[in-house]
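User: Here's a chain of 178 residues. Predict its fold as tokens.
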Amino acid sequence: IGPYGCGKTELARAVCADPRVVGASAMAPDLLTAYLHESVNNVRRLYDAALRLHDESDKPVVLTLDEFDSLFTGGKGESVSSTDIVQMTKVLQQVLDGMRDYSGVITLALTNEPGAIPVAIRRRFDYVDVVGQLDLSERMQLLGMFLEKSVPLHEDVPANYERWAEKLVDAPGDIIRT
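Assistant: Prediction complete.
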């Protein structure tokens, strides 16, 4: 949970890049459709596909759901029936409770609108992290990481990180990256 640009997606990328897991992702709006009950079926299909990945690789699958809140609000102007939203909630409750066996599939849900996620779903997550705005030190570290990773730097450049980071107050990680 965290505001736009605070690093939620970067965190998910890091987790999914771990060689001990298979990283998979879906944008929650991609699961939504105007066809009656297909959104519910898409959620089931997604978890079934993740389970097949686990079975094939014998590694845990980290299923990242970005914009998770949009599953319950209908996404970007999508027309999803309230019946489908209730059914998607029930499917996710079953998955997260282990009532349907998806052993080996770990759900990593990202949102900047936690209030849009039904309490019945939020309370089923074992861990909830709140990611806030970047402080000066974090902005400096990101500047260094992104610059040093992309181009060769003169030895004097790192001395400027603090000055540059001070100018980037409230800048999200994706702005610092660019």
